[in-house]
Design goal:
The chain is an alpha+beta fold and 99 residues long. The chain has three helices and six strands, in the order αβαββββαβ. Strands 4-5-1-6 form a four-stranded antiparallel beta sheet, covered by helices on one side. It has a two-stranded antiparallel ribbon with strand order 2-3. The structure holds iron/sulfur cluster.
Length: 99
């Protein structure tokens, strides 16, 4: 058990996924700006709102995806382009919300 925890911690330290991309989907107004600036991570859904591609859906309707440092800029741009500020980036290690 202890070994499993240690292995999980090591795996976590090795992971390049430094940020958590969050989408407050219920409050998305479907303007499609995120899809335009970061199409590798964002796509419009038939219901008129956007989705994080491969994102995990939460019970409250929000979505999350862990991303690597190299994908930070395009998602920061998506967050900056969102007119209703429903895209957030969180530092996985510190829990600090960057945007
Ligand atoms: S930019 Fe914001 S409001 Fe527009 S589709 Fe993307 S998440 Fe929704």
């Amino acid at each position: 058990m202890e070994q499993e925890i240690q292995q999980a911690e090591e795996q976590n330290q090795k992971s390049d996924k430094k940020y958590i991309l969050q989408h407050d989907r219920p409050n998305c107004i479907g303007c499609a700006a995120c899809e335009v600036v970061a199409p590798d991570f964002w796509e419009m859904n038939q219901d008129g709102k956007s989705d994080i591609k491969q994102g995990k859906s939460l019970e409250n309707g929000c979505q999350e995806l862990e991303i690597e440092e190299k994908n930070y800029n395009e998602n920061k741009e998506a967050a900056d382009s969102c007119p209703v500020n429903v895209i957030h980036l969180v530092n996985k290690k510190t829990g600090e919300r960057i945007t």
